[in-house]
From TrEMBL:
Pfam families xrefs: HEAT_SCC3-SA, SCD, STAG
Protein's name according to its UniProt entry: SCD domain-containing protein
Composition skew (Basic and acidic residues), residue ranges: 316-325, 954-964, 992-1007
Region (Disordered): 1-120, 301-325, 531-553, 954-1007, 1218-1386
GO molecular function: chromatin binding
Naturally occurring in which organism (per UniProt): Rickenella mellea
Family annotation (PANTHER family): LD34181P-RELATED (PTHR11199:SF0), STROMAL ANTIGEN (PTHR11199)
Length: 1404
C-alpha cells in the first residue's frame, strides 16, 4: 500500500468533524467536463479514489493533495511563486475531500434524469463561460447541495483566506459572464480593484453582445438567479453562525469588489454586482434581525435576573450578562456598518440606474428589507426611496414599489412608522390608482389604498375618488375596487341603522338604501368632474391625466358597476329586497321616529307600521331612478348566473323571477308611469320574464293587463328611449307563440289606437298643407309620427298606411304626406313633425320594396309596381326640393333629414342594387333610379356646406392655439427667413409644438360637451349616407373630393369614414382602368385642401400633408415585402403633378405680383404635399414632370432663390424629380439587381443623385466651392432634433442641395437658414451630404488657412456611439434641449450605410 493510500485510509477511520458541527451528507454524482485535466497533480494517488472524490464534490471546486481542502481555481499564479509548494507536504487534510461525499445532497431531493438532467459540458459550451470555478459550477448545478459548498468554502476561508476570497471573486466574475480571473494577491488588493475591473471591461467590450447568466435565455441559467440568491443567503447565515462574518475579511472584500463593479460601464457587471449586493443585504437583514432579537432576549434575562436576586446577590450573573450584551452590541455595530456600506455603496446609486431592470431589482430588495428588518429600514430616510420611484417611467419599477407598500400596510405594527410617509405620498397613490397607464399597477395601488383605508388614513374626498373607479372602463380595476366599495357600503349601512334595533328585513332595506345613496353620490361626482374637464378643455388646458370612466348615465354604466360589486356586496344580488323597497310609497316618508302621513288607500290595505317608510331607508326620487336600473341589471345577472349552474337552474330562476314580477310589475307601472326615465327602466323588465308562465298559471287576464300597460306607455310617451324600450317589450311579447291569439288581438288594437289618434289630431282640417297648427298640436302630431316610425322600424305597416276604408276616409299615407308637405313653410316648431313624417314615408317605401324582393303574385305585379313608383316619385320630389331645392324654406333639420332619406332611396334603387353579380335583373330592376349630374353636384354642395358649418362652429368653440404659425415660423412670415435671426429657434420648437397640437386636438375631441357631440353625430350621419351612395354607385366617386378636402380637419371619426372614398378610388384606378378619374379627384382634393390653408381657414398645412400621404396609396398596390404589385398608369400620375404644379405656380406668381411674401411662402409649401406623391415615380415620368415644372417657372417669371429657406420645399421636390430621372443611366450599368423602381437606394444611387442635382440645378445656381475631404465623416442628427447649418459661407449650389430626403414622410426636417453665399471661381463639384444637413466644404482662404472642420461646425456631433459599454453616469438623463431621454444604446452608422438604412425606412 502506498503512503498516500495509507494516509487516506487512516483519515477515513478518524474523520475530523466540521467546525459548524454539521454532519456530512451523501452527495449526488456531478461530473465536471474539465475535472480530469485539473487533477494531474494527484498522479501519485489511486485512480479510482481520485475519480470518486472528483465526482462526489462538484460544489467544492478543485481538490489537490495539498493542505488546502478548498483551493481557488486560479491558484496557478500563486503556485508558480512557490506558495503552493510550501503547503504541499501537509497532506492529512486531503482525505476530507473523499470523506465529504455525504455532503453534496441535492436541494430537490432527486437528481434529474434523462433529457432534463443538467449537462455541465453543454451548459458551459453554450454560455461560453469557463467551468474552472467550483463555486460557480455548484450554483449552476440545480442538484448541488449549496449548504455543503458554503461550509467547505468557509473552512477554506479560515485556513487560506486569500485563496478562498479569490475563488469567490472569480465566481462573481463568472456570474458576470467574464472568463478573467484574479489570484489570491489581486483579490485582496483593494487599491487595485478599479484597475482590475478596467482590464476586464476592455476584454468584454470586444464582445458585441456579452451573455451573462442573469439575462441569458439558455436553459442552463433558468434557475441561476434562485441558486445565486440561495448561495449568498447560506454564505452569510453560515458565516454568522461561525462568527466568520465578524472576524474575517469576507464582507469587506465582497463590498470592495461588488461596489466597484456596480458602477461599471458594462451592464453585465453592473447588473450582476447590484443583484449580489442586494442579496447580501437581504441576508444581512436576516442576521441583523436575529442579532437584534438576541439582544432583546439578553436584556430581558438581565432585567429578570436583577428583579429575582437583587443587586447584591446578582453581581456574578450581571457580569456574565454584561459580557454577552457587550458581545452582542459589538455584533450589532458590525451589522449596522455592513448594512450601511452596501446600502450607500450600491442601492443609493443603482435605484436610479438607466436600466429599468436594475431599478426594479433595487425596489424589490428594499421591499424585502422593510419586511425582514423593519427596526432598521422602516424609517423615513429609507421609505422615501419607495415614494420616489412611484413616479418612475418604467411600469415594472412602479409595480415593485407598490407591492412593497402593500406588504407593509397589511401589518398593524408598521402603521405608526408609515404615518408620515402615507401623508406625503397619498396624493401620488390616488393619482396612480385613477390614471396610471398600466393596468397591473392600478390594481396593485388600489390594493395598497384599501389597506391604507383599513387603518383610517384616507380622507373622505380621497375615498370618493377611489370609489369612482367602480365606473372605470377596465374590468380588472372595477373588480379590484369592489372590496373597497364594500367597506364604504357597510359603513353607510351602519350609519343608517344607528340607534335602531334592526332585524333582517330592516337591514336589507337599509342596505338597498345605502347602495342607492352611494351610487347617486358617485354619479353626481362624476358629472362634476366631467363638467370641470370640459371647461378645462375649452380653456385649452391639457387633460392627459383625466381617467377614463364609463358614464353612469349611459346605459351600461350602472350595469358595469353592478357586475363588479356582484360578489362582494350582497345587496346587489338581492333583487327581491329591491322590489319590496321600490313598491313602498316613499313620498310619505316619516320623521326620525317613523311617524308620517300616508294615503288613505294605503292605510286601508296595511297597518300603520307597514305603511310608514322609515327615514333610514326612504328613497329620494333620483335614488329610485338609479335603483330601478340596478334592479333591471340584477334580474338579468341572476338569470345569466343560473345559466352556468346545474341543469334546470336557469328555468327555476326564471320562473321565480317571473312569479315575483307578475305580482309587482303592475304596481311598478302604475307608480312610475309619469316619469320618463324611470318608466324606461320598468319597460325593460318584461323582457326578463318567462311569458309561458302566464299560460301555465292560467293568468291570461294578467297577461292582457301587461299588454295594456306597455301599450299605454307607448301611446302616452314620445321620447325615443321610452318608445324604443316599449317596442322591445312588444317584440318580446310577440315572440310568445303560445299566446299568439292574444298577441294578434293586442297588436291590432295598438294599430287602431294609432290610426284613431292620427285622424283625431288632423280632424276638421281640409287642407293640411297650409292649415295652421298650434305648438301643442304640432308636438302632438310629431309624437304620433315618432310612434309610427318606431313601430314601422320593426313591423310592416304598409297595409295600415294605405287603408282608406274604400275611399271613405283619407289614408295614413295621404295624411303623413300632407304633414311632410308643410316642410316648405319652414316653421321651427314643426321641424320634428316634418322630419318624422319624412322618415315614416321613407320606411313605407322600403317596406313596399321589400315585399317585391320577397315575391308577389304575377297578376298584381304591374299594379303594385306602378303604385310603388308613383309613391316613390312623390316622396323623391319632396326630398329633392327640401334638401337641395331652391323653392322651399325648409329649415336646417328638415334639410338634413331630407338629404339622408334622399341618399337612402337612391342607394336602394340604383342600377347596381337592382342587378345581380351575374348580370341578372332583380325584382326591383323596373324601378331602377339614376341620379342626374346636376342633382349629384347639388348633393355634394350640400355636404360641403354641412362640413363648413360644423368646422366653423368647432373653431369658434375651440380656443385658438398659436402654433407659432406652425409652418410660417419655419419658412417665413412676411419676410424672408434668412433675414430673421431667430429662425433656428422657431424651428427648434416646431416638432414639439405640432405634437402638442395633435394631443390637444385629440383631447378636445374627447372632452366635447354633449351639444357638440350631438352636432358631430349629425354630421357623421349625413356624411355616412353620402358615402354609402358613393360606394353603391348612386353618386359618382368624383364627388368624394368634397370629403377628401377636409381630411384631417374634422375629427378621427370623419377621417375613418373618408377612407371609403380612397378605397373606391383605388378600385377605379387599379381594377376598372379609370385612372383619369382618379387623377382628377386627387388633384382637386389636394388643391381644395391646400386652399383652406392659403385662405387662413386652418392654422397649418398638416391636414393637406396627411391627405397627400393617404392618397399616395391610390397610386400603387404593394404586396409581400413591399414589392409593387400594380401601379396607376404613368400618364395619370404625370397629370396629377403637371396640373398641380401649373396651379401652384400660378398662385405663387400671383402672390409675387402683389408683393405678398407671406402668401408666397405659404404657397411654396404645396411642394411638400406633391413630394408625398412621388412614391416609386418612374424615371421617364420624373423627367416629364421636371420639364413641365421648369417651363411653368419660366413662363410665370418666378425667381427661385437658391439659399432662401422659404424655397426649401420646392428644392426638395425638384431634387427628388432629378434623382428619379437620373436613375435611368445608373440602372443600365447595374443589371437585373435594380430593375424595380422602388428598390432600396444604394451608394451608387446616392452618388448619381448628388451629381444629377448639381448638374440640373445649374440654371438656378452659381458655381460652388470645392468639396469636403472624402475621409471626413458626417455627424448623426438624432431626430427630431433640428439640423443646423454651419455659419461659414457656402455657395448657392451647395445650399440648393440641402438634404430633404426624397419620399421622407417628415419633410419638415429642413435645415436652418445658411449664411449669404460666397462666390468664387472654383469649378462646381459634388456637394457631400450628411444625415439631415449639408456639411460645409473647405473654402480657399487668402491666408492659406483651412475652414473649420466638420467637428467644429457640428454642435450636436457625437464622437462615438453611447453603447452599453460606454455609459458615463449610468443614470436616467434627459436632453437639455428637447427633454428627450438619451438613448445610450444607439449605434452610429457610417456615412454610406446610414444613408442606405434611412432610405429603406423612408421608401418602405
Amino acid at each position: 500500500m502506498s503512503p498516500s493510500t495509507q494516509t487516506m485510509t487512516e483519515t477515513e477511520t478518524t474523520p475530523k468533524p466540521r467546525r459548524s458541527g454539521r454532519d456530512k451528507k451523501q452527495a449526488e454524482r456531478f461530473v465536471l467536463g474539465a475535472s480530469s485535466n485539473k487533477r494531474k497533480r494527484n498522479e501519485d494517488t489511486d485512480g479510482d479514489e481520485m475519480m470518486s472524490a472528483a465526482e462526489s464534490e462538484p460544489e467544492k471546486g478543485d481538490e489537490t493533495a495539498d493542505e488546502d481542502d478548498y483551493v481557488a481555481p486560479k491558484k496557478t499564479k500563486a503556485t508558480s511563486k512557490g506558495k503552493g509548494k510550501a503547503r504541499g507536504p501537509v497532506a492529512p487534510k486531503k482525505p476530507r475531500a473523499t470523506k465529504a461525499t455525504p455532503k453534496t445532497t441535492t436541494r430537490k431531493g432527486k437528481q434529474k434524469e434523462g433529457g432534463d438532467a443538467f449537462d455541465p459540458n453543454k451548459a458551459f459550451a453554450e454560455s461560453k463561460i469557463a467551468n474552472d470555478n467550483g463555486l460557480f459550477n455548484a450554483i449552476m448545478n440545480p442538484s448541488a447541495a449549496l449548504q455543503g459548498t458554503v461550509e467547505d468554502f468557509l473552512e477554506s476561508l479560515s485556513e487560506s483566506p486569500e485563496a478562498a476570497l479569490a475563488d469567490l471573486i472569480n465566481c462573481i466574475l463568472r456570474a458576470c459572464g467574464s472568463n478573467d480571473s484574479v489570484d489570491s494577491y489581486r483579490a485582496v488588493d483593494y487599491d487595485g480593484v478599479v484597475d482590475a475591473l478596467d482590464d476586464f471591461t476592455e476584454v468584454l467590450k470586444e464582445d458585441n453582445s456579452p451573455t451573462y447568466p442573469l439575462t441569458s435565455k439558455l436553459p442552463a441559467f433558468k434557475k441561476f438567479r434562485k441558486s445565486l440568491s440561495e448561495f449568498l443567503h447560506r454564505l452569510v447565515t453560515s458565516s454568522a453562525e461561525l462568527a466568520t462574518l465578524y472576524t474575517s475579511d469576507l464582507l469587506p472584500t465582497l463590498q470592495t469588489w461588488v461596489v466597484a463593479m456596480s458602477s461599471s460601464q458594462l451592464r453585465s457587471f453592473r447588473h450582476t454586482a447590484t443583484v449580489i449586493a442586494l442579496e447580501l443585504e437581504t441576508a444581512l437583514c436576516d442576521v441583523a434581525a436575529a442579532v437584534e432579537k438576541e439582544a432583546e432576549v439578553i436584556t430581558r434575562q438581565r432585567e429578570g435576573e436583577r428583579k429575582r436576586k437583587g443587586k447584591a446577590s446578582g453581581a456574578g450573573r450581571d457580569k456574565e450578562f454584561e459580557g454577552k450584551a457587550a458581545e452582542v452590541k459589538e455584533r450589532r455595530t458590525k451589522m449596522q456598518e455592513f448594512l450601511k456600506e452596501y446600502f450607500d455603496g450600491v442601492f443609493v446609486h443603482r435605484y436610479r440606474d438607466l436600466d429599468p431592470n436594475i431599478r426594479a431589482e433595487c425596489v424589490h430588495a428594499m421591499g424585502n428589507w422593510l419586511k425582514k428588518f423593519p427596526a432598521h429600514f422602516l424609517d423615513g430616510q429609507y421609505l422615501r426611496y419607495i415614494g420616489w420611484v412611484l413616479s418612475d417611467a418604467n411600469t415594472h419599477v412602479r409595480l415593485e414599489a407598490v407591492r412593497a407598500l402593500v406588504s407593509l400596510y397589511v401589518k398593524e405594527d408598521f402603521i405608526v412608522s408609515l404615518h408620515h410617509f402615507t401623508e406625503r405620498f397619498k396624493p401620488r397613490l390616488i393619482e396612480m390608482a385613477t390614471g396610471d397607464t398600466d393596468l397591473g399597477v392600478r390594481v396593485a395601488v388600489i390594493q395598497a389604498l384599501s389597506a391604507i383605508d383599513a387603518h383610517g388614513l384616507l380622507e373622505e374626498d380621497q375615498r370618493e375618488k377611489l370609489c369612482l373607479l367602480v365606473f372605470d372602463e377596465e374590468a380588472k380595476v372595477r373588480k379590484a375596487v369592489s372590496s373597497f366599495v364594500k367597506g364604504v357600503w357597510e359603513e353607510t349601512v351602519e350609519q343608517r341603522l344607528v340607534g335602531k334595533k334592526a332585524g333582517t328585513e330592516e337591514k336589507d332595506r337599509a342596505g338597498v338604501k345605502a347602495l342607492a345613496l352611494l351610487l347617486v353620490k358617485w354619479t353626481r361626482a362624476l358629472d362634476t368632474n366631467a363638467d370641470t374637464a370640459v371647461e378645462d378643455g375649452e380653456n385649452g388646458e391639457s387633460q392627459n391625466d383625466t381617467p377614463s370612466r364609463v358614464n353612469p348615465h349611459q346605459k351600461g354604466g350602472i350595469a358595469l358597476a353592478v357586475e363588479a360589486l356582484w360578489e362582494d356586496v350582497e345587496t346587489v344580488s338581492d333583487w327581491q329586497a329591491m322590489i319590496d323597497l321600490l313598491l313602498l310609497d316613499h313620498s310619505a316618508g316619516g320623521t326620525g321616529n317613523g311617524a308620517a302621513a300616508v294615503s288613505s288607500k294605503r292605510k286601508q290595505k296595511k297597518t300603520a307600521d307597514d305603511a310608514v317608510v322609515d327615514e333610514a331607508w326612504r328613497l329620494e326620487e333620483v335614488e329610485e331612478t338609479v335603483l330601478l336600473e340596478v334592479l333591471t341589471v340584477a334580474l338579468r345577472k341572476s338569470k345569466t348566473e343560473a345559466t352556468g349552474g346545474k341543469k334546470g337552474a336557469e328555468d327555476a330562476v326564471a320562473s321565480e323571477i317571473t312569479r315575483a314580477l307578475i305580482k309587482s310589475l303592475p304596481s311598478l307601472f302604475t307608480k312610475h308611469q309619469t316619469d320618463e326615465s324611470r318608466i324606461a327602466d320598468v319597460l325593460l323588465i318584461p323582457e326578463i320574464m318567462n311569458l309561458e308562465m302566464y299560460l301555465e298559471m292560467r293568468m291570461i287576464t294578467a297577461y292582457e293587463a301587461l299588454w295594456d300597460d306597455i301599450t299605454k306607455q307607448f301611446l302616452s310617451h314620445s321620447t325615443p328611449t321610452v318608445l324604443s324600450h316599449a317596442m322591445s317589450a312588444i317584440r318580446h311579447l310577440m315572440s310568445a307563440t303560445s299566446l299568439s291569439n292574444t298577441n294578434s288581438a293586442k297588436i291590432l288594437e295598438l294599430e287602431d289606437e294609432l290610426s284613431s289618434s292620427l285622424r283625431d289630431a288632423v280632424a276638421r282640417r281640409d287642407e293640411l298643407e297650409v292649415a295652421s297648427f298650434t305648438e301643442d298640436e304640432a308636438l302632438s302630431l310629431g309624437a304620433i309620427c315618432a310612434r309610427l316610425v318606431t313601430l314601422s322600424g320593426t313591423r310592416d305597416m304598409t297595409t295600415w298606411m294605405e287603408e282608406d276604408e274604400g275611399g271613405k276616409q283619407s289614408s295614413a299615407w295621404d295624411i303623413i304626406c300632407a304633414l311632410a308637405e308643410r316642410g316648405r313653410l319652414g316653421y321651427k316648431e314643426e321641424e320634428l313633425m316634418v322630419e318624422r313624417a319624412l322618415h315614416q314615408l321613407t320606411l313605407h317605401i322600403i317596406w313596399k320594396a321589400r315585399s317585391f324582393v320577397a315575391g308577389v303574385e304575377e297578376a298584381d305585379r304591374e299594379r303594385l309596381l306602378e303604385a310603388l313608383r308613383e309613391q316613390r316619385d312623390i316622396l323623391l320630389e319632396k326630398l329633392t326640393e327640401y334638401a337641395i331645392g331652391t323653392q322651399s324654406n325648409a329649415i336646417e333639420g328638415v334639410k338634413r333629414a331630407a338629404f339622408q332619406h334622399l341618399m337612402t332611396l337612391y342607394s336602394l334603387f340604383c342600377p347596381a342594387s337592382t342587378t345581380g353579380p351575374d348580370g341578372t335583373q332583380l325584382p326591383l330592376a323596373p324601378l331602377a333610379l339614376t341620379m342626374d349630374d346636376e342633382v349629384q353636384y347639388r348633393c355634394a354642395g350640400f355636404v360641403q356646406a354641412e362640413i363648413e358649418r360644423y368646422a366653423e362652429d368647432m373653431e369658434g368653440e375651440r380656443p385658438h392655439r398659436d402654433t407659432g404659425s406652425g409652418d410660417e415660423s419655419q419658412f417665413g412670415s412676411g419676410s424672408e427667413l434668412e433675414e430673421d435671426g431667430d429662425a433656428a429657434k422657431a424651428k427648434k420648437g416646431k416638432g414639439k409644438d405640432r405634437a402638442k397640437g395633435k394631443m390637444q386636438e385629440s383631447d378636445d375631441d374627447r372632452l366635447l360637451p354633449r351639444s357638440k357631440l350631438e352636432q358631430e353625430y349629425v354630421l357623421n350621419t349625413t356624411v355616412a349616407t353620402f358615402l354609402r351612395a358613393i360606394r353603391v354607385g348612386a353618386v359618382d366617386v368624383k364627388h368624394g373630393a368634397v370629403l377628401l378636402t377636409h381630411y384631417g380637419r374634422i375629427g378621427s371619426a370623419f377621417d375613418i369614414s373618408v377612407r371609403v372614398v380612397v378605397d373606391s378610388l383605388r378600385e377605379e384606378g387599379m381594377h376598372k382602368d379609370n385612372g383619369a378619374l382618379v387623377a382628377t379627384v386627387i388633384t382637386r382634393a389636394l388643391q381644395d385642401s391646400f386652399t383652406l390653408y392659403l385662405d387662413a381657414m386652418v392654422d397649418n398645412d398638416t391636414h393637406t400633408l396627411a391627405l397627400s400621404k393617404l392618397l399616395a396609396s391610390c397610386l400603387l398596390i404593394r404586396g409581400a415585402q413591399l414589392a409593387i404589385v400594380k401601379r396607376l398608369e404613368s400618364d395619370h400620375v404625370v397629370d396629377i403633378h403637371t396640373n398641380s404644379t401649373t396651379w401652384i405656380t400660378k398662385v405663387i406668381a400671383g402672390y409675387e405680383t402683389n408683393g405678398n411674401k407671406k402668401g408666397r411662402t405659404k404657397a411654396v409649401l404645396f411642394f411638400r404635399v406633391l413630394l408625398q406623391l412621388l412614391v416609386a415615380i418612374q424615371s421617364r415620368d420624373a423627367l416629364k414632370i421636371k420639364a413641365h415644372l421648369d417651363q411653368n417657372i419660366a413662363q410665370n417669371k418666378i425667381e427661385v432663390s437658391a439659399t432662401s429657406k422659404s424655397w426649401e420645399p420646392y428644392r426638395a421636390y425638384e431634387k427628388r424629380l432629378t434623382t428619379a430621372g437620373s436613375k435611368e443611366k445608373g440602372k443600365k450599368g447595374r443589371g437585373k439587381a435594380n430593375q424595380t423602381d422602388d428598390a432600396v437606394t444604394t451608394d451608387d444611387d446616392e452618388e448619381m443623385e448628388v451629381h444629377g442635382l448639381v448638374t440640373n440645378a445649374s440654371q438656378f445656381t452659381q458655381p460652388t466651392q470645392t468639396t469636403m475631404p472624402t475621409g471626413t465623416q458626417p455627424s448623426q442628427r438624432p431626430r427630431p432634433r433640428p439640423a443646423y447649418r454651419s455659419k461659414n459661407a457656402v455657395s448657392e449650389n451647395e445650399a440648393s442641395d440641402v438634404e430633404s430626403r426624397p419620399g421622407d414622410d417628415n419633410v419638415d426636417g429642413l435645415s436652418a437658414p445658411p449664411s449669404p453665399p460666397v462666390r468664387n471661381s472654383a469649378t462646381p463639384a459634388k456637394s457631400r451630404k450628411t444625415n439631415g444637413r449639408t456639411s460645409p466644404a473647405k473654402l480657399p482662404s487668402v491666408g492659406g488657412s483651412q475652414s473649420p472642420t466638420h467637428s467644429q461646425t457640428s454642435p450636436r456631433k457625437r464622437s462615438h456611439p453611447a453603447t452599453d459599454t460606454e455609459e458615463d453616469d449610468l443614470y436616467v438623463r434627459e436632453d437639455g434641449v428637447n427633454g428627450n431621454t438619451v438613448d445610450d444604446d444607439a449605434t452610429l452608422a457610417t456615412q454610406s450605410s446610414e444613408i442606405i438604412v434611412r432610405r429603406k425606412r423612408v421608401r418602405h
